Structures are given as C-alpha cells and as structure tokens.
Amino acid sequence: MIAEAGPSKLQGSLNIPASKSHSIRALLIATLAEGTSKVTNLLDSADVRSCMEACRALGAEISGADGTFTIKGTGGRLRAPEKPIDVGNSGTTIYLIASLACLTDKPITFDGDEQIRNRSAANLLNALSELGADVISSEKGCAPFTITGPAGGGEISIECPTSQYLSSLLLAAPLFKGETIINVPLLNEQPYAEITLRWLDEQGIQYTNEDYKRFVIPGGQTYKPFTKAIPADFSSGTFFLCAAAITGSELTLNGLDMTDSQGDKAVVHMLEKLGCEIKIGADYITIKGHSMKGCTLDLNATPDALPALAVTACYAEGETHLANVPQARMKETDRIDVMTKELRKMGAHIEELEDGMIIRKSKLTGTDVMGHGDHRVVMSLAIAALGADGVNRIDTAEAVDITFPGFFDQLKELRTE
Question: Are 217 and 241 part of one and the same domain?
Fold first, then answer.
C-alpha cells in the first residue's frame, strides 16, 4: 500500500493505542497462570494478534472482542503444537515466548516472516541450551528454530543487546524446577526489562535483582490469574509528540501515564530538552511545539524512538546527536541505515554512526520513499513530510497495522490545513 503525507499543521487531541509491550506480557502471563484472567484495552494490532495465536497454540483458551479478553491459562503445563508457531512480524513475541518452550519436554518450533528470519536469537538460544534445553537452529540463531525442554535451572551469563532476551528468561525461570541465576554483562533497553519486572512484582514472583547485572530466581513458583487494563503506548505516542514538535502545533495525547514503566516516556523530556513546551497530566500529555535547538540524546533505553527523533532532528537548529543506540540496527530493519537513506532522499544532512546518527538542520522535500515494511519507519516518514515542501509517497504503509492501526486516519483528522 502506498500512503501520501504532506505539509500541514495539526491541532486537537487523540487517544493513544494500548501498549504493545504490556499487551504481549499480559497474554503470556495469563497463558502461564492457573485460572482465568481478564484483560481490557488490549491492543488490537498484528503483533498482538500473532502473540494471541501463539498462546492459543500453547494451550491457552482465549475469547473476547473489542479489547476485552478472557484467557484461561495452562498453569504452566504448555501444549506442544504439531505445527510451527508462526509469530508473523512480532519480534517481541518470538523472543519472549522462546523460553516458555522450556516448560515442556516436547519439541516446539517457532517461525515468522522474512524480517523475523533475519533477526538473531542466538544469545538467548545458547542460554536456554546451557539451562538444559535442546535447541536446533541455524548457525546465526534465526527462525525457524526448535526448542525442547525441560530446563531445570542453573547459572548462565548472557549479553542482551536487546532486553527481550532477559525478559524472556525472567518470565520462564520462575516455573523452572530449580533456581536460575542470570548474569548480564550487557543490557540495552533497560526500561523494557523493568516492565517485565513490574509484572513479576504484581504476580508476587520472588527474585533478587543486583543492579540489573545479576538476577537470582527461585524455581517452583506459579503465576496467578489477574484482571488488568492495558495502559496507552508511549512508543506509539512518540510519533504524534514529534509531529507537534516538527510543526509547532499543540496536541493533547490521552491515555499516557508518566508513572508507567515504559521507557519511551523519556521522549517527553527529550522533546522538552529540544525546546518544546510540555504539560503533564495524570492520564494525558499536552505538547506545544516551539523552535528547537539540537542537542545530544542518549537513546540506549529508547531505541524505538530513533526513527521519529531522527526526523524531528532535521527541524532543530544546529546539530543533534542520537547516541548510544547500536541495537537500533537489530529491529525490524537496520533503522539507523534505513532512516539515513530515506531522509537523505528528502534532503537531510545526516552522518551515520555505528551506534547512532548526527543530524543537522535540513530543508526537507517530499519525494518517493520506502517504508521497508517497518511500521516505525513508515510512521516516521509520514511525520517527516508535515514540515517539508511537497508530498511523501511511502510504500509498505500497511505495516502501521503492526502497532498503530488507523495511524493515517488519525493524522488526517488532526490536520488543520
């Protein structure tokens, strides 16, 4: 699908979709629980639907509609489906669910689309093997791969260029028979691990956390059913926060709670640092764009924000350095490379770094650009056009359904010219 986006001011308010990170963790924990859980405001997106189907394949009984679902869990006694579990485009699902396969002594195979088949899970798969699982995968550790448990616990060391490796182990380890000790010499995206730990806290799961360098998780624990409303997604909200910054517009984003554990809430203060005016309410954020001045932004904890902030930096005076985010190259696409190439097509002045980008104020011109089937790239190129001359024609625009169905409709509704 080709989508067009051109220059415009924005005004009004919008409701931000539910958090993908919370939605997927809710489904996985409900699947592991003994009893029936109820989840409201569950995100309706391709990634979450992929996770839901994966949970059903593992034995969960899920019913509901319009964001409200009941999940009858397995009590940790997972079913091993005969066919591979297809996670579609959902990297969060395949990483977080992989460790759960260690809870059964039957083989479980995971697969996904072309992007998933190029995203390595080698560090995680090696860790599961050290814990006692039998793992069959390619040399690079990409899908499809097969895991056969059980894993009984033990001590491992794992580098986590993506925090999802750690979150996967943290979710499964409480159900292992023995104690699990996880040493973490490298951890990117720490706030996403914090989201997982907050879920464990709500579940009463016992663990010790030594400054995110070492975790000790006793085995033989259980998950309990729960009722929870999923909060709004700061990662999705980032695109409209940045859109207001780019256009000097005033927008109110409803549903965003700055007390939530999502890492991308830091984008609010990054835009404030660039020069925007921010008002924070209990469940909303109002942003008013002003002239911006470039600065250095450390994105290690917020890699998903790189595409939108790269666009925003093109409209800031001077130079902006997006720093310390090498894992942005490991997402649905190599987002550092892709955003550099596509914004240069629009006339952006960008220096590509191994772990980030240096961007100077640029006069952007709309043109034909590629979304690369990456939802965050597509949405970023759409907001890039808001302050440009001319129209961007963006291919693979259907990718926005992965996390933000209706994104282009919402953008259209907020236009004032």
Answer: no
In this structure, the answer to whether residues 122 and 148 fall within a common structural domain is yes
CA distances from 352 to 10, 294, 373, 409 (A): 30, 16, 21, 32
pLDDT tens digits for range 139-174: 899 999 999 999 989 999 999 999 999 999 999 999
Q: Are residues 73 and 106 in the same domain?
A: yes
The reply to whether 326 and 386 lie within a common domain is yes
Mean of pLDDT over the chain: 97
3-state secondary structure of 167: helix
Distance, in Å, from the CA atom of 310 to the CA atom of 343, rounded to the nearest integer, reads 9
Neighbours of 204 (CB within 10 A): 10
Q: Is the pLDDT score of 351 beyond 80?
A: yes
pLDDT of the residue at 152: 87
Element (H, E) at 122: helix 122-130
- Whether pTM > 0.85 for this model: the answer is yes
Report how far apart, in Å, the C-alpha atoms of 315 and of each of 246, 320, 384 are: 6, 10, 9
Task: Encode pLDDT of 264-300 as tens digits.
Answer: 999 999 999 999 999 999 999 999 999 999 999 999 9
* Cβ pair 107, 92 in contact under 8 A: no
**Active-site residue (options: 86, 264, 304, 401):** 304
Specify the pLDDT at position 130: 97
- Is 355 designated active site? no
Query: How many structural domains are present in the chain?
Result: 2
CA nearest to 312, candidates 259, 249, 262, 373: 249
Q: What is the CATH number of the domain that holds 390?
A: 3.65.10.10
Beta bridge partners of residue 319, listed in sequence order: 360
Say what percent of the chain tops pLDDT 70: 100
Domain that holds residue 347: 3-17+232-414
